[in-house]
Every structure is written in C-alpha cells, then in structure tokens.
Amino acid sequence: MSTRTARPGSTNGWPPPAATDALTIFTAPERRRAISGGAVSLAGIVLFVGIAVLVLLAAGIDSGGINPLADPYLLRVLRFTLLQAVLSTLLSVILAIPIARALARQPRFPGRLWLIRLMAVPMGLPVLIGALGLLGIWGRQGLLNQTLATLGLSQPISIYGLAGILLAHVFFNMPLACRLMLAGLERVPAEYWLVAGGLGMKPASVFRFIEWPVLRGLIPGIAGLIFMLCATSFTLVLILGGGPAATTLEVAIYQALRFDFDPGRAVMLSLLQMVITLVILGAMTLFRAPDDYGLTSGRALRRIDGQAPARRWIDAALLSAATLFLALPLASVVVTGLEANLFKLAGQPIFLQAAVTSLAIALAAGFLAVLTSFTIIRARSVISADRRKTFRLHGLAIVLSGSSSLILLVPPIVLATGWFLALRPLGDPSRFAAILIVVINALMALPFVIRVIEPAYAVHVRRTERLAASLGLHGISRLRLIDWPGLRKPLFTALSFAMALSLGDLGAVVLFGSDSLMTLPWLVYSKLGSYRTNDADGYALILGLVCLLLTIAGTAGQGARDDESRRHD
Predict the structure, then answer these.
(1) Which single residue of 35, 158, 389, 474 could bond 393 by disulfide (Cβ 3.0 to 4.6 Å)?
(2) HSE-CB for 250 with a 13 A CA cutoff
C-alpha cells in the first residue's frame, strides 16, 4: 500500500505506525503552503536584517576604510564594553553558585517557592523599571544613602559608572544563572544522595564529587549567555553609565547618531558590535551540552548536607540576603510609584498618546512575531517529518532553525542604525519609525516566541495527526476544528510575552522617539532626563503593571496545562 493512501488502523502491517511520514499527514498543497510560508518568513527576516547590514558595510567603505582599532575613542569604548561584560558575568555566576546550592539543600526553607518565583521577575521586567528600582535603593537619594545619612555617616555609595552597571547586571542576570543552576542540581538522581549518605560525605566532599561536576557542565553555557546579554546591554548603561568614561558600544552608537550626528562613527561602532556578538555566538556553540546522569528510580530522598543547624542558619542568611537584594528595588518601584498622583498622570494627554502608541506597537509586533514563528515552526515540522526530503529542503530546514538567531547577531540598536542610514535619502527617517519599531520588536521577540510555541506544536501534532488523517481534515477545516482549539492557549501565551517584551523596550525607539512618536518607555526616560523623577516613577509603575498583567495572562492556567500534558503523555 502506498504511504500516500495509508491510514492509521491498516491491517496489512505496512507501513508501521511509527514509520508514517509527512505525506500521510499533509496533502501536497498543505506541504507546499507550509514550506512556502516558512520560506517567505525566512526571506523577510533575511531581507530586513540584510539591508541594514549592507547599508552599514557600504557606509563603512564610503567612510574611507578607517581602522576602528586606530581610533582611541573606539578602543576605549570597546575596552569598557568587554570589561563590564566580563566582570558582570563573573559576579553573576559566582554569586549564583552559593544561592543555587542553598536552594537545592533547603527544600523546606520558608518561602522557597516564592523566592524562586521572585527570581523570575527581573527576567520579565522591563529593564528601565528595574533601573529605576535600583536607583530608589542605591541612588544618591536612595534608601541606603538616606539610612547612612540618618546614622550621621557620609554618603559614599554611587550607583553611576562601572559600579552601578555591575550592580544592575547582577540584579538582572544572577537570578537567571541561579535558576538554571538549581534546575541542574535538582536533576541529580536520588541515588547519588543515597550513596553520599552511606559514605558519610562531608559538605566539601558533596560539593566536590556531586555538585561541582553538575555546575561545571552548566557554567560555560550560562556564562556565555550572560556575557552576551551584558555585552549588548543598552538601557542600563544609558541610565547608569555616568558619562563618556562608562559607555558601551550600543550607547556610543546612540550618542553618535542622536547627539553628535556622526554616521561614520556610528557605522564603525555598529560593525564592532556585530563582530563581538558573532564571536560570542560562535564561542557558545563550542560549549557541549551537560552530561546525562542516566536512569534513576525517580524516588525522592532528602539531602544530608543541609541538615546541620549551622548549615541551616548559613543558608537561611544567604537566601534572606538574596531575597532582600531582589525584592527591595521592586518594592521601591511600587512605593515611589504610588507616591505619584497616578490618576492625574493617567489622565494627561501625553500619557494617553504614549499608551495607545505602545499598545498598538506591542500588539502589531506580537502578532507579527507569532505569525512568523508559527510559519517557521510549521515548515520545519513538515520538512523534518518528510523522510524523502531533498538536499534543498534539508538546507532550508537548517537555515530556518537559525533564522531566529539573526536578532542575536545584529542587536536592535544596530538594526535601527542601519535602517536610519538607509532611509535618510528618502527624507526624515522618523516617518517610518513606527513600522521599523514594530518589525525590530517582533524580531527581538522571535527567539522567545519560538521557544513557547514549538514544544506545544510538536505535542499537538503528535496527538492529533492520526485523528486528522483518519477524518480527512485538511486546510481550513483542520485549522478550525483541530489546530486552533489545541494551539490557542500557547499562541496567546506567546503573544502576551511578545507584547510585554515590546512594551518595555527602549532600544528600538531610542533613535526615533519624539513628541510625535511617544511610547511609555520613552515617556519614562524623557521624564527621568528632565529630572521629573516623581512623574517617571508613576509612569514606570503603570508600565510595570501592564507588563505584569500581560505576563500573568500568558501564564494563567499554565500549571494545570502542564499537569494535563503529563497525563496525556
């Protein structure tokens, strides 16, 4: 029997159910549409990114081929970019190790679950709001310096410059490292702890023989990710940099175009930024995946190295300090925001304009990111399931797999710079600002959206492919009756995450922000720059609440869905 006409439940024994290929599930028109959709999405991404890169390269050639390594200013900016990224990565990883170990040792620590959830907040918090929270605690008029002044001491703490940048990067990246390390430590089989208890291992031996081999496999990948985040940091350095002596490449690009209007220097800085991100991404591919610990019975066993009273007190002090470090800036945002007249601020025309603009951009960027991601995922699924795919389709699948990484190679500020230069011959580039910001924000959200949708799509196809084939459902009927009911929740989750990411973004709008294109992050930044900090705090709280509501809406019922998925699987 031909595989094109085979159906589940065939009694002739061929083909086996597990060997049914894509031709059984998708008709030829559906395959063509899926592959064409993926190819169109890929072409759009490559075209948008490629034009920006080609314009930057052409502008670099037209500038006379100046060697960026011969410019003292560029060298200084490059050195500071690498220095702060290295120090931020080291601090984040080093501080995360004891906190992750303490969380793993103390599964019954009061509030442990809430601390783990608290560690997820900085990762989803708009960077601008986190920076304001840090200023509320560590700034010149912050809680810490006010406490020192009350005690009759001087105010030696300054958050601006290298120290402030490092502090902010640790605030955002240490929780990420900690959660990844904790996940690795919790995957250690219970048999390891049984053996450790039987041998009477001391805490130092437990770390040496059990924990460190796990962490050693995780740290290179975690460090590479954090280093890339810090090397491409923009908003934190823009707010906390403190002047030319503490400027990274992305901030220098912004200053070269926005204040100095020196396109040649902006091009050189953009090319340097692209080289750095390319080197980082290349280095990250060299990190091998963490080792698999093999089969385990799955039984739970309490660890032996965290039961001594002294160890419990030390872990409690460490986890309490981590909680304060993360919670105080967030509480500062809430307290200072509530001190502002929120109703008055929310009624101002400039806020209404910024809110409508931000929501429109976020909604458009979210839909574009979800649509692009879905077409890429569907095309990859069809190609990978086809056992007779040609060399050309195999190459297309590989390119589709790496399409979302282009935004990592070319950061948003570099994309904005390239398109700023490309549109200058057509007049004022700000006329196209809204469209550019939507596309850049969609590309920025693409890696995250794909990570949300792809696992759900794979499970959905595995569960429903035979049902759809047996019922003869294809095209619009399959989409309406099977695909949409099964994928509606993960699609809405991805949309909410993409919108929250777009709402809090300052990097894409910073080159084009003006009175005619005012977004909520740009409004907060402009109020902060004009020393109207009370208004900035109020707007920041509103922005944070909107992003929080989007995140909650996207994750609503996630636990129930996960339980249901495990039952089905």
Answers:
(1) 389
(2) 29
Do 441 and 477 touch, CB atoms closer than 8 A?
A: no
Both tokens assigned to 34: 């899926």
pLDDT recorded at residue 171: 94
Q: What DSSP state is assigned to residue 308?
A: S
Q: State the Cα–Cα distance between residues 523 and 539, nearest whole angstrom.
A: 8
Q: Do residues 150 and 142 touch, judged by C-beta distance below 8 A?
A: no
- Do you find a cis peptide bond into 15, omega within 30 degrees of 0? yes
Phi/psi of residue 58, nearest 5 degrees: -65, -40
Residue ranges in 259-340 assigned as alpha helix (H): 263-284, 309-339
Angle 240-246-159 (CA atoms, 0-180°, nearest 5)?
A: 35
Whole-angstrom distance, CA of residue 118 vs CA of residue 322: 10
- The letter for the amino acid at 171 is F
Percent of the chain with pLDDT over 90: 15
Rounded-to-integer distance, Cα 225 and Cα 104, Å: 22
- Cβ atoms of 487 and 370 closer than 8 Å: no
Would you call 384 exposed, middle or buried from its count of C-beta atoms within 10 A (0-12, 13-18, 19+)?
Answer: middle
Supply 422's token pair: 């490309």
Specify burial of residue 114 (Cβ count, 10 A radius: 0-12, 13-18, 19+).
exposed
Can you give the pLDDT at residue 90? 96
Measured distance CA(388)–CA(456) in Å, rounded: 25
pLDDT at 561 over 70: no
Q: In the structure, how many helices (H) and strands (E) does the chain have? A: 25, 0
Q: Using CA atoms, how far apart are residues 298 and 186, in angstroms rounded to an integer? A: 11
CA distances from 101 to 179, 210, 355 (A): 11, 11, 42
Query: What number is the average pLDDT over the span 143-152?
Result: 82
Q: Which residue has the tokens 């580039």?
A: 429
Residue of 263, 431, 369, 328 lying closest to 41 (CA atoms)? 369
Residue with tokens 């990190």: 287
Q: Express each pLDDT in 258-310 by its tens digit.
A: 777 777 788 888 888 888 888 887 777 776 655 555 545 455 556 666 677 88
Helix (H, G, I), strand (E, B) or coil at 72: helix
Full 3-state SS string of 157-170: CCCCCHHHHHHHHH
Highest mean pLDDT (candidates 176-180, 393-397, 430-434, 486-490): 176-180
Q: Residues of 5-15 as b/e, b for ≥16 C-beta within 10 angstroms? A: ebeeeeeeeee
What's the length of the chain? 569
Number of Cβ within 10 Å of residue 293's Cβ equals 14
DSSP one-letter code for 12? S
